[in-house]
Amino acid sequence: MSSARAPLVVLLAASSIWLPLAVSQSADDCAFDNEGGTISTCNLVMNATPFRLKSWKTGTGITTNYRGGPGVDAQQSNEGGYAFASTSDMLQDFPLPTKAWMITSPNNSTDSLGRCLEFAFASEGLCVESLEVLMVMYKTNDVDEIFFNNTLTKDYQVMSLWRTRQSTKAEWKKAQVTFSAPTPHSLVFSASPDKRFASRGGYVAVDDITFTEGPCSNECLFDRDLCTWTNNDTADNFDWSIGRSSTKIGTGPSKDQGSSLNTFVTTGGYAYVDSSYPRLPGDKAWLVSAALQPTAVPLCVKFWINIYGGGTGNFRSEYDIDDMYMKFDLHCYRNRPRETAALVSKPFTLTSDVCLSFWVYMSTTILSHIHIGALRVVLMYEAKNVTVWRLQNQQLTDWTYSQVTPPNTNSYVAIEGVQGPRVIGLMALDDIAVYPLSCPLEPATAAVQEADCPFDQDLCQWKVEADGRSSSPTMMWHLALNSKVLIDHTFNADEGGFAYIESFNTDQKSRMKSPFLPANTTFCLALWFSDIYEDNAAKLSVIRSSEGREETLWTVSQNVITDLPVSGYTTATWRYAQVLLPSHNTTYQLVIEGEVTRSAWAVDDILLIPGRTDCI
Ligand SMILES: *[C@@H]1O[C@H](CO)[C@@H](O)[C@H](O)[C@H]1NC(C)=O
Ligand SMILES: *[C@@H]1O[C@H](CO)[C@@H](O)[C@H](O)[C@H]1NC(C)=O
Ligand SMILES: *[C@@H]1O[C@H](CO)[C@@H](O)[C@H](O)[C@H]1NC(C)=O
Ligand SMILES: *[C@@H]1O[C@H](CO)[C@@H](O)[C@H](O)[C@H]1NC(C)=O
Ligand SMILES: *[C@@H]1O[C@H](CO)[C@@H](O)[C@H](O)[C@H]1NC(C)=O
Ligand SMILES: *[C@@H]1O[C@H](CO)[C@@H](O)[C@H](O)[C@H]1NC(C)=O
Ligand SMILES: *[C@@H]1O[C@H](CO)[C@@H](O)[C@H](O)[C@H]1NC(C)=O
């Protein structure tokens, strides 16, 4: 069905030449001036604790370079001020990395032409995951009260406007972002750490923040008009118009790009052409930018497109760009925690490397409830399923690009959603593509080792070793289902989802053995455990088992408490452990051994991080 009717021709071009700005100061600007040793933070809100996040700091090359900040500011002065987020602050609560926010003071809605934010940024170190510019939209009109009366428990919603993930290697770069806001809002500079490189340190810094009314040069939100873009009267046959929401059934986007993922935002505008009558096949509509200045560096044109309906040229039969994505339904009341739904491929026979790429969206609008579930890529063999990529719980408030090269095998590939507790949020998947080349795993936080286990559906690749003494399956390691004793650590959901052993009056020992770990690699083993109904004979150990030799690497016992609660339940909580697994000259297995007499052990979220040298 490729009857080519009215193909679209879009002429788009953009420039990011840094023309000197007409000097028009906005109350939101900030150059972090060094005023006799005090760095001015202008009207910025530097304290992010109302959002339960870490804060940015100010500094100069002279005062903060040795504490992990940049050596100069954006004007290349070692005395000039800047703001920065250091990864040592963001990783203070390891293993729960925390973002750092710097927030512009709340402002009213913008007008429909929007505003232009320009700023300089620099970053260095492997430990920086990303710098993002977010828009926080407040549900209240009384914006002054939000920070100054600490009433931020009120609902707000976050939308991502801009993001970079590459280190600038300490070089200052410039960025611009055009945005419009229909509600009272703040913009946020959000730095995220990469916890895998916690030992390396790093920073993200920002300087010379300016705001101007209207869009940034050559940019256009198409919320009010075509900005500096024009329709050409001579070279084409019909014109582009501004639309808000399609009034026709079967064609036109229902919302603009900025609001399509965000129910909180009323719809903005977009430029569009309608190919229906009186348009004829071959008609063209040109949207032409203002004249661009020559540049020494390549420019990048970015735009969002939406093509929908019959008769929109030959795009329709080749792509399906319908504002559509696969959604994992988090809201369905019949779904229980840890239930899964899988999209399964045709059988794959992989004889050479391929790159499986896709985009995921995993976010909740309630930032205090970050547990929403997991998405994972699973290779399905006859006898076992192997996870090769996994992201869980709250991610960026934007689509995240993801890719993985599965090992060469014969298997089905499934992309699986795992239900967390019931939450308001969205888990979605889009643009799955397979390329004939190998690619590094993205995002780095989705890396999975074979011995990792969140204990969602099973014990993963861990095997329980039979022990002659164990008379009942509950006295051996097993997956806890419907447990009322403890809330699962992975999703903070009830109904089990961790490894568990218990005994009421006999000495029991049970061992769980990992798949083989590679030789000559140092790992940091991270796990969560809980001791339930304390008993002084109980022990939990991590043992390395290699060619018949065993070496205990870590042991913990339970503290005796004299007054057991009457109900028989303790208020059990999860505790975190890290165990260094020094490099070994052969492959080996890990054993998790639990000993109990009148108590229980629970273990969850086993994670192996290769190459970590600072594991304690
Ligand atoms: C808020 O926005 C207006 C116009 O959009 C701007 O003039 C003003 O400087 C901004 N900031 C504050 C703190 O009012
Ligand atoms: C927002 O609008 C209200 C009402 O028009 C006004 O009183 C207030 O000063 C404005 N706030 C800012 C930051 O511009
Ligand atoms: C803070 O909010 C509370 C509850 O709305 C109100 O009673 C109180 O007067 C406010 N205080 C200030 C300083 O605005
Ligand atoms: C329309 O496009 C043609 C061909 O590129 C160009 O010569 C002409 O100047 C344009 N006219 C306007 C009004 O942009
Ligand atoms: C692998 O996963 C699929 C999809 O969730 C499931 O139906 C199947 O039972 C699993 N196979 C094994 C061996 O666990
Ligand atoms: C591995 O290390 C052990 C001691 O830790 C040593 O006895 C053994 O010879 C080594 N094996 C190899 C192949 O190097
Ligand atoms: C590990 O290193 C040892 C000593 O360098 C070497 O003999 C052994 O072959 C290596 N093992 C593997 C699996 O690479």
From TrEMBL:
Pfam families: MAM (PF00629). SMART domains: MAM. One of its GO terms (cellular component) is membrane. Residues 1-24 form the signal peptide. Keywords: Signal. Coiled coil: none annotated. It comes from the Eukaryota. Residues 28-218, 218-441, 451-616 form the MAM domain. The keyword Cell division does not apply. This is MAM and LDL-receptor class A domain-containing protein 1-like 1. It comes from Homarus americanus (American lobster). The lineage of its organism: Eukaryota, Metazoa, Ecdysozoa, Arthropoda, Crustacea. The gene is Mlrp1-L1.
